[in-house]
Write a structure and sequence with these properties.
two-stranded antiparallel sheet; five-stranded parallel beta sheet; 9% strand; alpha/beta; 7 strands
Length: 284
C-alpha cells in the first residue's frame, strides 16, 4: 500500500507501519508532527509556531495590497479586536451567537495554514468583525475537519499533562508569554481543555524508536508553518530509517497542492521509490 498522510495522518502512517511491518510500499508524510516530547511541551512548541506564523502574516499585510489591513498595523488591529470582543462579544450575522476574544484567537491558527488562500481571508475576517460581524471566525477554513475527529485522538493518544485547575492556569500563563497575540489558543490547547474530565483514560502511544519494516519515507515540511515546526519533520525522519525531509520554503501545508517542486518529487517517489537528495529545498 502507498500511504499519503497530512498532519495527524503522518502519525497514523508511522503507527500503521509499526503495527504492520512490510505492508507499506511508500510513505509520503506532509507536515509531520512530533509526538515524542511531553504533551505540555508539544503545546508550548505549537503555540510558538503559530505565533511565528501570525507575525509572518502581519509582515505580509504590511507589504501586500492584497491584505485588507494593508496600510495599518495588522497586529495592533487584531489585538484591539480581541480586547474589544473580550469586553463586548461580537455578534454573528444570523444572531445565533456572539464571539469573545478567546473565540477569535482559537479560530485564528487555522487561518494561518495556507498563505495564498487563508491569509487574505483572515484579514477580511478581522475587518468584518471590526464592523460588527464575527461570522467568519465561527467556521473551520479547512472544511475536511470535524471537531470530534480532532478531539478524540487528542484525548486518547497522549497523556493528559494537567489534572488540576492550578496546573492548567500555570500552563496558560506560559502560553500567554510564548504567544502574546494568539494567547496560546492553538489546537492542542483546545484539545487539552476538552479532554479534562473525560471518563475514559488516555492510552499514550509510545513513539520515538526506529520503526522496523517501514519503507524510507518522503517527509515534506514547510520551513514556516502554523501547525508544526520544521524540526518535527526531522524527528519523524529519524523514526523511519532511510527517510528524507524535503523542505519547502514557505508557510503552507498540503504542499502537494501548492508546489510543482513538491509534486515532482512526490510523483517520482510514488512511482519509482526514488527519494530526493537529503537537504533538498523547494522554493516555488
Amino acid at each position: 500500500m502507498n500511504w499519503y498522510g497530512i498532519h495527524y495522518s503522518t502519525l497514523l502512517g508511522r503507527t500503521y507501519a509499526d503495527l504492520y511491518p512490510g505492508r507499506l510500499r511508500t510513505m509520503v508524510l506532509d507536515t509531520a508532527l512530533d509526538d515524542t516530547i511531553p504533551p505540555a511541551e508539544r503545546i508550548r512548541r505549537e503555540a510558538a509556531t503559530a505565533e511565528e506564523a501570525f507575525r509572518r502574516f502581519t509582515a505580509w499585510c504590511a507589504a501586500s495590497t492584497d491584505c485588507a489591513l494593508h496600510g495599518k498595523d495588522a497586529a495592533a488591529e487584531y489585538d484591539a479586536l480581541v480586547a474589544h470582543a473580550d469586553r463586548t462579544p461580537v455578534p454573528t450575522a444570523d444572531g445565533s451567537r456572539a464571539l469573545t476574544g478567546e473565540d477569535i484567537r482559537a479560530a485564528t491558527q487555522d487561518y494561518l495554514t495556507l498563505s495564498g488562500v487563508t491569509w487574505p481571508a483572515l484579514a477580511q475576517a478581522v475587518v468584518k468583525a471590526q464592523a460588527g460581524d464575527a461570522s467568519d471566525f465561527t467556521y473551520e477554513p479547512d472544511d475536511t475537519l470535524d471537531p470530534v475527529q480532532v478531539q478524540v485522538p487528542a484525548c486518547l493518544d497522549t497523556a493528559r499533562p494537567v489534572t488540576t485547575f492550578d496546573e492548567l492556569a500555570r500552563l496558560r500563563d506560559d502560553l500567554a508569554r510564548i504567544s502574546p497575540h494568539l494567547g496560546g489558543a492553538v489546537r492542542s490547547w483546545t484539545a487539552l481543555t476538552g479532554c479534562l474530565g473525560w471518563p475514559v483514560p488516555a492510552r499514550p502511544v509510545a513513539a520515538g524508536a526506529p520503526v522496523r519494516g517501514a519503507p524510507p519515507a518522503l517527509i515534506v515540511q514547510s520551513t514556516h508553518q502554523a501547525l508544526a515546526p520544521h524540526s518535527a519533520g526531522i524527528v519523524m525522519a529519524a523514526q523511519l530509517p532511510g527517510s528524507v525531509v524535503l523542505s519547502r520554503e514557505g508557510d503552507d501545508y498540503s504542499m502537494f497542492l501548492l508546489s510543482q517542486c513538491v509534486r515532482d518529487a512526490t510523483n517520482g517517489y510514488l512511482t519509482t521509490r526514488a527519494l530526493p537528495a537529503p537537504g533538498t529545498t523547494c522554493t516555488d
